[in-house]
Amino acid sequence: MTAIGIHDLELATGHYVVSLTDLAESKDIAPGKFVLGLGQSEMSVLAPDEDIVSMGASAAKPLLERNGTDGIRTLLFATESGVDQSKAAGVAALELLGLPHNVRVAEIKQACYGGTAALQAALGIVSRNPTERVLIIAADNARYQLDSPGEPTQGAGAVAMLITADPALLAVEPADGISTTDVDDFWRPNDSTTAVVNGKLSIDAYLDALTDAWGDLQDHGGPAIGDIDRILYHQPYTKMAKKAQQRLRQVTGDDISTALNPGDEVDGRDTGLETSARYNRRLGNSYTASVYSALASLLDHDDSLAGDRIGIFSYGSGCVSEFFTGIVQDGYRDVRDAGTIDAALDRRVPLSIDEYRALHQGPHGTSADEVTPQVTDAPFRFAGVHEQARQYEAR
Ligand code: COA
């Protein structure tokens, strides 16, 4: 059987960054609560001329420059920060990227699980015709109300992935474990620009979903825990991955290490918990992109993965989750420049807390006509709204 999976991936984020130490101090909270308690050191913030379309297209641009556009007949855009109730964000991204018009485009939504739903659809499309390639863009802007418990877990990021036969990075294996339960742990009502979250409930829902999806994977012929070398989790904040690893350790009885922070005592088999958290610790939550940011972080910071099996747990509140596995391909380090994401994170412009709060309270997601100020230095920007339609341009 032809191997199918992730051939290449790239990550983009916002123009600004907020230090969580500064955020904690502005609220008279001990910084340790955010930095160690939640496992977050920074969060990305979008400029007024950035959104999921500009960020997603910016992630996809280097991917297409490296790989060309031949055979791409599908673009799936996964997001839970949709900018329109009808038109798929990917249609604007297609135009910005100069993709041919003979490409089907659709938007996929199920909270942070959407990127994995897109991946599963892409695997099916490429299985049917291995000469086709599918472009996935998973992009989100995670926003909560100011001064709410969720505020320090905001962030923004986009991951673009190319799904192909004979992939150069990760061949996805056929067995998967799935779990869906109707639960109100997190959602964003139509009339709100910020998410509603019951954080404690979402921790329980996530861990129960992990237990159920792991059991389903075992029931469907998935590998034993001892045959999985590295494990990635959806990371709304990186401490959640540690909680997940503790749960999986308990459920399987395997001594997988729960050391998350650099310098933590390694208490068992290293499955990449710390390595896979490096980008998300600095990005904040990127919803649909989060678990694939964890994949990028692992691939970029571990040069001994060739032939290893990676387990990936994807969770989207509401809730839908999936545990699947893939094999890292030989030569994965040659596909992309592993330093580009760290460099992009370093380039973000720091915001003071007053500037960040003003930006948060500014106009967001309205259909009123506006021309946005030019701020971002990303390849694409959100230029404003004209006659209620969002406008985009290359810089
Ligand atoms: N130093 C180190 N750790 C500290 C600390 C300090 N000074 N003060 C508190 N902590 C720890 C707490 O012990 C806790 O750790 P634990 O979870 O391992 O017990 C952690 O910091 C968080 O503290 P807590 O009191 O639980 O925080 P909170 O009630 O303000 O909110 C969340 C935390 C996660 C519930 C909240 O940020 C949230 O709702 N985030 C959104 C979650 C989300 O997106 N869910 C949906 C997708 S899965």
Instruction: List all distinct small molecules, including ions and cofactors, that are bound in this structure.
Output: coenzyme A
The CATH superfamily name of the largest domain is: Thiolase/Chalcone synthase
Largest sheet: 9 strands, mixed
Tell me the number of structural domains: 2
N→C terminal distance: 43 Å
- The secondary-structure element order is EEHHEHEHEHEEEEEHEHHHEEHEHEEE
Mean pLDDT equals: 97
Q: What integer value in Å does the Rg equal?
A: 20 Å
In the CATH scheme, the class of the largest domain would be: Alpha Beta
Binding site for (3S)-3-hydroxy-3-methylglutaryl-CoA: 144, 243, 285
Pfam family, one: HMG_CoA_synt_N
GO molecular function: hydroxymethylglutaryl-CoA synthase activity
Domain Hydroxymethylglutaryl-coenzyme A synthase N-terminal: 4-166
Outline the secondary-structure elements.
Elements: E1 4-12, E2 16-19, H1 20-26, H2 31-37, E3 42-45, H3 52-67, E4 72-78, H4 89-97, E5 104-108, H5 114-128, E6 133-142, E7 155-165, E8 170-180, E9 186-187, E10 196-197, H6 199-219, E11 230-233, H7 238-252, H8 278-283, H9 290-301, E12 309-316, E13 320-328, H10 340-347, E14 349-350, H11 353-361, E15 370-371, E16 380-386, E17 389-394
Parallel strand pairs: 2-14, 4-5, 4-6, 11-12
Antiparallel strand pairs: 1-7, 1-8, 2-3, 6-7, 8-13, 9-10, 12-13, 15-16, 16-17
Helix pairs in contact: 1-2, 3-4, 6-7
Bound molecules: coenzyme A.
